[in-house]
Structure formats: structure tokens, C-alpha cells
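Morning run. Coffee first, then this:
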Amino acid sequence: MLICCFAGCEEILYEEDITTKSVSLLAPTNGVSLVTGDVIFNWQTVNGATDYELQVATPSFENAEQIVLDTIVSGVSFTQLLEANIYEWRLKALNSAYETNYTKSDFEVVLEP
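And here it is:
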């Protein structure tokens, strides 16, 4: 019986190594212009990931004036109200033991014409 308990614990502690995988960003795509309001961020599932770290900066992470969002998401989409500005968003997949590199994309939010 002790052997069964040990084997069960071993399964719980094992996490898939996702470090060589990458996240595919679906929207907003690189260079797109969106009208001020809710921006819906979408990406594809990474097998072995349990969460995703989503960050948004203005105008970019290299020249960040502000990090406007830094959150952990368990699904494959997130909605955020953003004002007119230039933004860059990045995302990485996580599990309890591993994480991928960030994948990033830039976009612009403009006032309604």
C-alpha cells in the first residue's frame, strides 16, 4: 500500500517540460489598429501549460513608459479596456515547474473616426 501512495505522489509532482514550446498569438495581430474600448487578447493552447502570463506595455517593453497589465490567465483569452495609444503585448505559457519564452506583438488603439 505504501508503494501505491508513493507512485501516486510521483504522478502529481511530474510536470511536462514546456520550455521549448512557444505560444501562438491570435489577436490582436502585429501592427493592427483597433478602436478605443475593450481589447480581446486571444492565443492558442500550449499542451502542458496550466496558465499564461499576459503583459501589456506602452509603447513597448524595450521603451516602456508604463506596464498597463500584468496578469496570470488560465484560459486562452482575456479582455482589457485600453485607451488610445501604442501598445505591445507579450505572453508566455506556465505550469508549476516550467515556462516558455515570451511571444510578443504590437498594436495600436485609436479614437473612433
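Helices lie at 2-13. Good start to the day.
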